[in-house]
Amino acid sequence: MPVLVSKSLRDYRSSLVRWTVGIGAFFALYLSFYPNISENKEIYGPQALAKFPGAMRDLMGGMEDFTSGIGYLSSVVYQLFGPMLFIVCAMILGNRAIAQPEESGTLELTVTLPIDRRRLVFERFVALALGLLAVATATFLLAWGLSVVSDMEVPVGRILAVHTGVFLLALFFGALSLTVGAATGRKGPAMAVVGVVAVGGYVVETLGKSVDAISWLRWVSPFHYYLDGRPLYQGFPVADYLVLAGATVVLLVTAVLAFDRRDVGV
Question: 128: closest CA among 164, 170, 158, 165?
Fold first, then answer.
């Protein structure tokens, strides 16, 4: 493994452990509610959920049926809260790649070493991707195990499909954070851009299905390529996931070029 990748992973180690525990605790908490919810169809069934305002149902992915395992996982775990936790984790890792060490003054020492700038950005991104993959793998195993214990009757392939989408979505936002940090050298702008794109993208994708004025914006929302294929219901949406992966590659190339041409103070 390249030196920069291994060093970055060592630096991220404690943070990755905390995020794995935190996201795992979220999954465990919400999945533990399912047995009780599945037994109260008059409260959480489709007819009861239909009473909620349409805008709220849209934001929560339609709120189809909390009493089915696949409906509960889709609406409560994988629609909003789970992906957002992964996105925040990816944003922090992306900031730690370039922007944070530059603000603290340690990056100037790194770039004076005989290390190509393009290699520096690329290997920091690889470390980010591997760190996210580790968190995604651990939480996937936990989600699958808890779904079995809770008798959700959701095929493991469907959970793997949606969890892969969460990983690709988070990786996109991690690359976005890294790119803005590589171009500006500041954490603040990177966090602001990721926040606006994440929240705006989610609102556009969910409300755009019923609001014609913003429906065309769904195609530029990263959430469209995660949610529109309904991976928990239909399996891997390969074309959508390829779009997310391609957009991540474009961001990585942009980050490499931006950092290579910018004055870092040395």
Answer: 170
Tell me if 12 is assigned to some domain: yes
**Sign of the torsion angle spanned by Cα atoms 227, 229, 232, 235:** negative
Pairwise CA distance, residues 58 & 198, whole Å: 16
Tokens of 181: 């940090």
Measured between alpha carbons, how far is 177 from 71 in angstroms, rounded to an integer?
32
Give the pLDDT confidence of 19-77 residue by residue, as tens digits.
Answer: 999 999 999 998 988 888 877 766 665 665 555 555 565 666 656 677 788 888 988 89
Give the pLDDT mean for 187-196: 94
Query: Residues in the chain, how many?
Result: 266
DSSP state, 266?
A: -
Q: How many distinct structural domains can be found in the chain?
A: 1
Q: Which domain holds residue 95?
A: 3-35+78-261
pTM of the model: 0.91
d(CA 233, CA 198): 23
What 8-state DSSP symbol labels residue 78? T
CA angle 201, 257, 260 (to 5 degrees): 130
Quick one: pLDDT at residue 36? 82
Does the residue 88 lie in any domain? yes
Coil, strand or helix at 149: helix
- Enter the tokens of residue 19: 């995020």
